Structures are given as C-alpha cells and as structure tokens.
What does this fold into?
Amino acid sequence: MPGFEVFGREEKKEIADVLETGILFRYGFDKERKGTYKVAEFERQFADMCGASYSLAVSSGSAALRVAMAALGVSPGDEVITQGFTFIATWEAIIESGATPVFTEVDDTLCMEPADLERKITERTKAIIPVHMMGAQANIKDIMVIANKHSIPVIEDTAQASGGKLDGRYLGTFGALGIFSFDPVKTITTGEGGMIITNDKSLYLNCSAFHDHGHKHIPDVERGLDNRRFMGFNFRMMELQGAIGLAQLSKLPFIIQEQKKNKKIIKEALEKIDGITFRRTFDQDGDTATFLAFFLPDGEKAKRFNQILKKNNVGAIYYKDNTWHFYPNWDELFTGTTLCKSGWPFKNAVSGADLMYQKDALPETEAIFERLLVYPISIKMPEDHLANMVKAIESAGKEVF
It folds into this structure.
C-alpha cells in the first residue's frame, strides 16, 4: 500500500531541485527560488488529475479536514456527521472546529450508511463527512442526494483513496470539498501532508487564507505587506513535501495497477471458499486496491480463520480490535479524556450539554465488524509470499468450513 515502496531517483531529483534553491518555504523568495515552486506545481497536477478547479496542499490530512470545515464556517455549537469507522483524525478535526461529532453506522461498504445518516440529521447539522475507507467508494451518490435534500455541504474524506473513482469520476469531487492524506502509509506519501480540492472558488479562497494565518495571497505583493482576510492558523505544506508529492503522483497509476494485481491473486483464493463474502463496492475498476476486506459467516469463524492465517505468518487485520479506526475502541470519547482543565470539549460544551458517547451506540457496525477480516495490499508482494498466503487461505478454509 504505501508509496514509500517505490521511492527512487524521481523523488531524489525533485528534492535536489529544491535544495539547489535553498528555499524550503512555499511562498515568497521569488528571486532566490529561480522559478521552482514545487507545492504550487503539485497542487496544479493533483487538481488536473482529479478534474477539480482548485486544490490546496496542506501539512496533513488532519489539517485538510480542519481547513475544509473552517472554509464552510463550521462553528462551536454545530454538529458534523461522520461514520463510526474512520481514522480518529476525522472526528478530532470536528472537535477542533468547536463542533460536535455525530456518528453513523456503516454498512457492508464499510462506509457511511445513508439511511442512518438521514436519521441523524438535525437543525444543528452543518456538514457531513463520509469517508471512502480502505481505498474504495462510499455510497456517495445516495449520500449526496440526502445532503442536497437538506442543503448540507459534504466534505469527502478521501484520505485512504487517492486515485479512486466512481463511474469514471474521481473520489473527492462529488462533495463541496474533498480531502486527501499523504502520510507514511498512504497510497502516495510525502511523509506528512494533505490536499483539499474543490470546484468552488470562494471555498478555495477561504481555505487558502485560513491555512496561512488569513493571508490574502495578493499577486505581486510582498508577503510582509500582504494583508489578511481573517484570522487563521499555519497548516502550510513545505517545498520538500511538494517535491516528493510530484514524484509520487507520477507513479500513482503504476501503484494502483500493481496493487490490483496482488489483490486479485489473494481474492481468487478466498473466492474458492464457500461462506466467504466480500465488501460491497460500486465500481471495481475505480477501487485503488489498497485493501481486501472479506466476511466470514460469524465472529467465531472469523477468529478461527485468522488464527490459522497467523500461524502461517499471514494474519489479517481484525478491525474489531483496532483502536485507531473503530468507534467502540475510541476510549477518549467515552472517558472524556482531555488536557483542558475545564474538561472541554466533553464538559462545558458550547451546545449547553456535556458530550456523552456510548460504546454500544452503533450495533449494526459492531455486528459487521465481528465477521470482518482485512488484508492490506502492498505494491511489492514477492511471489513466494503471495504463494504462502494462498496456501494458508486454502488451509484455513478446509479447517473452518
């Protein structure tokens, strides 16, 4: 899965271009940088790839979420709906915006369940953040119908699905804004880093200003004389990240191609076992193939199956035990753990009531994850390793079924 598997001379060349100028900051120093603007070029190429009008590179995928919500005007007292299977950054960013996270069930897409989304919309709902988890599509078309019906903007969290598509259209382009992550284990990586895309100029200008202390970025005006539209913060990407991003972006089609080859081999072995089913996807061609998710008939069989895989050193991820992505394991939500002496955001919330989350609030999601196993798919998977995986899967199938 991670783009660092294909680091090579292309990344080194792009980095060398930056080091020759001595300018690591993305803005200003026009004379010294001699026409080298790696972050700006990375933004342009990423927008072109997605077919988006505007893109903004930021310091992380988490920052992208925070900036996107700021651009929409998400405020203390608001509610933002996301799903109970996502990386914690999604709801951390909601809290950092002063808003209250509201969590929906996921269905067999492993993404937001549209029916539960509609049930949880209130007059305080100011944004919806569906997450295209593990490289494939959320039910974004149905989600957009619901969001448009209620006039609520959508931020697509596409952190795990760079290059993914639905019916030929890039994920991240269906909502008002789309965000991406380039952290160490993403499909393409800059170590840290993220991207925001949109077709709305006003939202882009809000993002651009907010991520750089409110700067207007007036052309041909010296940075020290550039005024500010409003208060913001520092979520800028640096030139070294932009340089690596350019090299990685050029390799994205190859990365997805290789992951699809490896995923196909593993999936074909699993398909031979009666009783195993697979995650529902809306567009197999648009899947980035970063993960292979499959279901056993029940939790007991899932655990037994994985025990056999582990004995053969090819164990799968049992996300029900994962503390980073699965709602019932987000203990800080249930205990109200915070460094703030006042207890904020869990105590003295702007809404007038303490935030109270219950571990058993998403029973449908929990039932799905009881049966779920997941294989991460790498770019480079040696033939002998794939052969061992196939052999272990066959052995587990015979023992469990």
